[in-house]
Design a protein that fits this description.
It is globular and about 75 Å long. With 552 residues, it is an alpha/beta fold. It starts with a strand and ends with a strand. A hairpin with a 7-residue loop joins strand 13 and strand 14.
Length: 552
């Protein structure tokens, strides 16, 4: 076996990812170096010192590939290039080199389920016509009904409506997401070979790992006749309604052959390249993607979706650790990302609140107290960072940013808004560009206005406003990550038997303990040295929505 070596990697430890803190960068909203209102690769490079000072281990770069932004960059026109609006491959190389110099790993988003409709392959498929080799790279089918005027199946798009779009010659193509995102046919060996090339292309440029988008959707049952899923006005049969591995396009058993093939490529490097699956599947099924001979790790979305409740959180933490151990992987924890309402707002919404209805109300029904929301978010952060495994931090959460729920509809960019007939407001509220300074047309994001408007309140959340300020959320993150690096050993925890109702209390190792009060009343702080708190102790008591780390 030929072993490839990339110079200047920040660490040769092959297991660096098992308990890493990974910072997600949404490039278009992170930093704008050229002043056009859109974040770019040189902007990321210029702000890498912020991540190094924060104390994270790696940055995960959301899509930066050529794209018309039909889905925020996840409609990829070329998987091996940089969008000209964001920079060049030379800019990417410079960013990766600077990250490694600062001791940071680089993880990039990989989007293997679909391409952009602007991809040269799809344009070739449209020209080539039915039955061609070019069309076999995608999922084209004849329609049903008179003259093929009906979609081949009743499958529904994640973004609303039919998952099929008709082309002028009468055939239909599959798009599980936006119509501008035609699904690839992973039964085609040419597709598999091309993505091996893509894995090597970025690995050879020094990339340390990959986040795999929609990892559970690649393998599809395309045998004829295609199966309907019983779509109705309220949806279609879901994974939970069908025997494991039998859904026609989600979480099929055959998908694991693809990732075992990828693992052979990733292990061809020293240290081996890492990977994490975005797989929206539960428990034991999710563990399959995280096996050592596949991707190695999988996102744990059950944790993100769990309400602020001690009993529910204890159960999901226990189950998540068991699931990870089953796979021989480490657990993953995440509170926010580019697809969900920021947790400084979300965690304060009453149980059962519909996030979309709340967004449509402009964040007013119900209103969220930003002070109370930040207090709960800080407590949730210290809880997450104390758990065994990898923590994924979304840009801006270290500043305590809330969701920008009141964006006017005329500025919305997320295709979900139009795809759903302006019923779902979409994800723009968590993608508003970051504030770096207290003043300026975009609070230091760039020289001019940002591509999404920032509220005036962002001035008080800016890096400049929090840097070196005792008690600020930014300094809390810095202190927590510094302490975590010193304290972290092993990958287990032990729940305390004496925890009060509404309180989570667990020990890690050598006396390091984490106590979170999710109840409505202050509780006594257990004996031990107070290492860090998410908020002030009240007369020696741990107040509601507060976490403390204790030493032995």
């Amino acid at each position: 076996m030929t072993v490839r070596t990339t110079p200047d990697l920040s660490s040769k430890d092959p297991d660096w990812w098992r308990q890493a803190v990974v910072y997600q960068v949404y490039p278009r909203s992170f930093a704008d170096a050229d002043g056009d209102g859109l974040g770019d690769i040189r902007g990321v490079t210029a702000r890498l010192s912020h991540l190094a000072a924060l104390g994270v281990d790696a940055l995960w770069l959301s899509p930066f590939y050529p794209s018309e932004l039909a889905d925020g960059g996840y409609d990829v026109a070329d998987h091996r290039d940089v969008d000209p609006r964001l920079g060049t491959l030379d800019d990417f190389d410079a960013m990766a080199a600077e990250a490694h110099r600062l001791g940071l790993k680089v993880i990039v988003d990989l989007v293997p389920n679909h391409t952009s409709h602007q991809h040269v392959w799809f344009q070739e498929a449209l020209r080539a016509g039915p039955g061609s080799a070019a069309r076999d790279r995608y999922v084209f089918r004849d329609g049903r009904g008179t003259h093929g005027a009906l979609p081949p199946t009743d499958w529904q798009s994640v973004f609303g409506g039919s998952a099929w779009r008709r082309v002028p010659d009468g055939q239909w193509y599959l798009h599980l997401f936006a119509p501008q995102q035609p699904d690839l046919n992973w039964d085609n060996e040419e597709i598999r070979a091309d993505f091996r090339t893509t894995l090597r292309f970025w690995s050879d440029r020094g990339v340390d790992g990959f986040r795999v988008d929609v990892a559970h959707a690649l393998a599809k049952d395309l045998s004829e006749p295609l199966r309907d899923l019983g779509a109705t006005e309220v949806g279609e049969a879901t994974l939970a309604d069908l025997p494991p591995g039998s859904h026609p396009f989600y979480d099929r058993d055959e998908v694991h052959e693809i990732y075992r093939d990828w693992r052979a490529v990733l292990d061809d490097y020293r240290p081996p390249r890492t990977a994490v699956a975005e797989a929206w599947v539960q428990g034991a099924r999710r563990a399959l993607y995280a096996r050592p001979d596949e991707l190695g790790q999988a996102f744990n979305f059950e944790y993100l979706q769990t309400p602020w409740d001690a009993t529910a959180l204890r159960q999901v933490i226990t189950d998540s650790l068991d699931t990870a151990a089953m796979a021989g992987a480490s657990a993953t924890w995440v509170l926010s990302n580019h697809d969900v309402v920021r947790h400084a707002s979300r965690l304060l919404l009453p149980p059962g609140t519909d996030d979309n209805a709340w967004l449509l109300s402009g964040g007013h029904a119900p209103a969220v107290d930003p002070v109370a929301g930040l207090r709960r978010a800080r407590a949730a952060t210290l809880l997450m960072l104390a758990l065994p495994g990898s923590s994924y931090v979304y840009q801006g959460e270290e500043l305590g940013l809330p969701e920008v729920a009141d964006l006017p509809v005329e500025v919305l960019q997320d295709p979900v808004w139009e795809q759903t007939g302006r019923v779902r407001k979409g994800r723009d509220g968590c993608r508003v560009p970051l504030p770096w300074t207290r003043t300026g047309p975009s609070y230091g994001f760039g020289a001019g206005a940002a591509w999404l408007p920032q509220p005036e309140s962002f001035a008080s959340y800016a890096v400049e406003a929090q840097d070196g300020v005792e008690g600020s959320t930014l300094e809390l993150y810095r202190t927590a990550l510094r302490l975590r690096r010193k304290l972290l050993q092993g990958e287990g925890l032990a729940w305390a038997d004496e925890a009060l109702p509404g309180v989570l209390h667990f020990a890690r190792h050598e006396g390091w303990r984490c106590v979170t009060n999710l109840s409505d009343e202050p509780v006594a702080v257990p004996a031990g040295e107070v290492l860090l708190t998410s908020g002030p102790l009240e007369g020696g008591l741990l107040g509601p929505d507060t976490t403390v780390w204790l030493g032995g």
